[in-house]
Amino acid sequence: MRQSSGIGVLDKAVGVLRAAAAEPCGLTELCERTGLPRATAHRLAVGLEVHGLLHRGADGRWRPGPTLAELSSGHGDPLLDAAAAVLPRLRDITGESVQLYRRDGTHRICVATAEPASGLRDTVPVGTRLAMTAGSGAKVLAAWADPATQRAVLADATFTERVLVDVRRRGWAQSIAEREAGVASVSAPVRDGSGKVVAAVSVSGPIDRIGRRPGVRWAADLLAAAEALQHRL
Fold first, then answer.
1. Residue 1 domain-assigned?
2. Digit-coded pLDDT (tens) for 5-44
3. Is there a single domain that holds both residue 68 and residue 106?
4. Does 208 lie in the same domain as 126?
5. Structural domain includes residue 181
6. Considering the chain, what percentage of its residues have pLDDT values greater than 90?
7. How many domains are contained in the chain?
8. Closest Cα to residue 186, out of 137, 225, 138, 228?
9. Do residues 65 and 90 both lie within one domain?
10. H or E element at residue 101
11. Domain that residue 150 falls in
12. Which of 17, 42, 73 is the last residue of a domain?
């Protein structure tokens, strides 16, 4: 029997973590393993997911999240450390807003940004969670996602499977007023040391300023930044 701390909500949350760590599980299985009501189990799992202690995959099952690895290693996130060094330079080169996105199931989360000091900006706050149905960052992350995730994304996306093929061939993606009216962006994949795509780095700004072909203008600088991030990883 597990020990009780005397703090009910903490004990329940730990129970949910242990249940997901034993084997990835959906809500029904989570309730069966913990004995918690559905509403309670769902509320705790979603809360743990927000903090990165759990991660819900494309199959809808919860499993241990990245924050657990970060806490156990005693070190910060190497991707964020790399971003702190690379993103400001890309911002200075382009004069536009720069973002770094990670995929979380069929969504992407902004994990780092670098904003110009003045002028009209396309501000995406760190922590923003966006559906992967539109935008150049979504295309990049979807292009190198597993087949199940690709199918789930394409069911509601503004782009097609053929577009993802072109993204993989070209090595970058662009979008014109897809995610937000009046905004254009271009994105490239960021790989880790093994070559796996772990993030997407993006440059975005007003169409009136960066034009309707942002890839032609910024792709080379973006790819150089993505390579710099990979070297630091």
1. no
2. 788 898 899 999 888 887 889 999 999 999 999 999 999 9
3. no
4. yes
5. yes
6. 51
7. 2
8. 137
9. no
10. strand 97-104
11. 78-232
12. 73
Matching residue, tokens 């770094």? 100
Residue 204 confidence class, pLDDT cut points 50, 70, 90: very high
Residue 1: its pLDDT value, please? Answer: 40
Residue carrying structure tokens 């199931």: 105
Q: What is the DSSP string of 14-61?
A: HHHHHHHHHS-B-HHHHHHHH---HHHHHHHHHHHHHTTSEEE-TTS-
Same domain, 34 and 104: no
Which of 181, 200, 210, 201 minimizes the C-alpha distance to 119? 210
* pTM to 2 decimal places: 0.68
The amino acid at 157: A
Total residue length of the chain: 233
Six-digit token string for 44: 């705790």
The enclosing domain of 63 has a CATH number of 1.10.10.10
Both tokens of 30, joined, read 């989570």
